[in-house]
Design a protein that fits this description.
The protein has 15 helices and 3 strands. The protein is mainly alpha-helical and about 325 residues long. Helix 7 crosses helix 11.
Length: about 325
Amino acid sequence: MAPSLKRVLASHKLRAQSLPDELEALLVAYVAELSLQKHRSEHTRRSYLHHARCLVESAHLENPAARQAREFLDARILRDHVRDCSSTISAASQAQKISALRGFIGFLYRRGQLDEDLSRHLERPRVPKSLIKVCGEEPLLKIRQALHAKGERERLLFEMLYGSGLRISEANAITWDALRSSEQSLEILGKGKKRRVVPLSSEGFRLLTILKNKMRGTPGPFPEAPRTLHRWVAAWALLVPEAELRLHPHALRHSLASHLLQRGTKLPEIQRLLGHSRLTTTERYTHLNLDDLIRIYDESFEGGVRARKASKKAKT
């Protein structure tokens, strides 16, 4: 078993009740599938394993002598478990739990542990979509200026998060080999093990080139734990106290997307930059009004323009 899988399982066994070896092996196989076939991140594996284990532990109490899921898990027990666990959590957390349980139930069904796919009994709650908060351009430009008094690595992190739109996990995983000097860009391994190439700002390219020479022997510019980079970003808000910002890494990514949209960048281009699988995800990064969204859609999809013209002709 890969070391990361061992860590994930061990962290849950510390708090879990004892389960029969057959069920422990089933959870191990589930985590392996999430990693090797589904290419889920370690964070996702931890979350999905947590929900799967909670279901197995609570359902197994119905029949402690059982060694297969079909012997202790049915539609009633599944619904009762979801109801009991969902009474004190938000709709968003409920939706995440349902997604995790659907994945685990499907795994059990494919493995022959269940006679039917019980996931059809699970319905995701409606989660209201909230607009993402972004930072204004002026405070971010002031932060970029103030960071000149900081170290080169903090300045580089800002350029990667706001200049290139990277996730903090992507920046943290950057290696020197990711730099494409001839194109002034980076090759990123993003969510779902998907690769994409993102441009570097001139300042980001300069800083990365300098650090590559200075930090020989390290895997990349940010060997620290992700929490350290989070603390750097949170502290940047103190550089512009008048703006009263609450900074976190994703806020810079959100802000870049919103600012690019306001400047007329097409949605598919931003989608490629951020590495979104679906265009609908990219839409959430905008604070533009409906008229601006329609204009961007029309510019991005020529079919929209033709459809509008055809509609006007039909009315006349």
